[in-house]
Amino acid sequence: MRRQFIVPAESCARSAAEARRTVLRDLHDGVGPSLAAVALGLRSARQLLASDPAGAARLLVLLEDEIHSAIGDIKALVANESPASVAKFGLVGAVETFVAALRSRLHVEIEVLVLGEIPPVPDAVSVAAYRIIREALTNVVTHADARTCVVRLWFDAELHVEVVDDGVGSAEVTTGVGLASMRQRASELGGDCRVEPGRDGGTRLAAALPVS
Predict the structure, then answer these.
(1) Neighbour count for residue 191 (Cβ, 10 Å)
(2) CA distances (Å), origin 51, targets 107, 137, 142, 171
(3) What's the pLDDT at 118?
């Protein structure tokens, strides 16, 4: 006897819409910061052309590598895998690689602090933390007009992420697509993500991500 299963059209439409939202969010949080960093690097390279052509050439080589990394992220997104840098370097290494790229072309002093030992965590947690940190740093260098920024990572039953800058803050940061995406990533893991004024001015982002 042949059985026929009927999936309601409304359910299919909801699934398709959710899939589109997921892809758009991953593009915004993953490839977006990579391309923003490359754009900043190209601006720096253009400024170096007259005064330091060799330095401009070295920077262009780095930017070429970053473009290839962004292409890898797109391929990973299509294959539903972890971002290329997280898969290659782990969470901390991927964050430090992204921060090193920003340092090479900006006047913002960015420090990464790992407080204590961070045990292995599920891939979904590592990817969420990495995406949140990248989006937060992109907001800092794009909107905050900051001079310093500190990224802190620590583990205490949950994986904690903190990004603190001494900039002016921005309404776009606290109400835009990026914050909604960061909050959603944390919420999907049963955690939370919030943005608030820093103790000494600037902005503080804090996220807590459960690992089970």
Answers:
(1) 22
(2) 18, 29, 25, 37
(3) 92
Burial 33-51 (b: 16+ CB within 10 A, else e): bbebbbebbeebbeebeee
* Cα separation, 31 vs 39, whole angstroms: 12
Domain at 9-210: CATH code = 3.30.565.10
**pTM of full prediction above 0.70:** no
Which pLDDT tens digit goes with each residue over 64-92? Answer: 877 877 777 676 665 555 677 888 889 99
**How far is the CA of 66 from the CAs of 38, 57, 118, in angstroms?**
7, 14, 27
Where in the chain are the domains? 9-210
Residue appearing with tokens 């045990």? 119
Q: How many CA atoms lie within 13 A of 21 on its CB side?
A: 11
48 to each of 34, 43, 95, 105, how far by Cα in Å? 21, 9, 26, 10
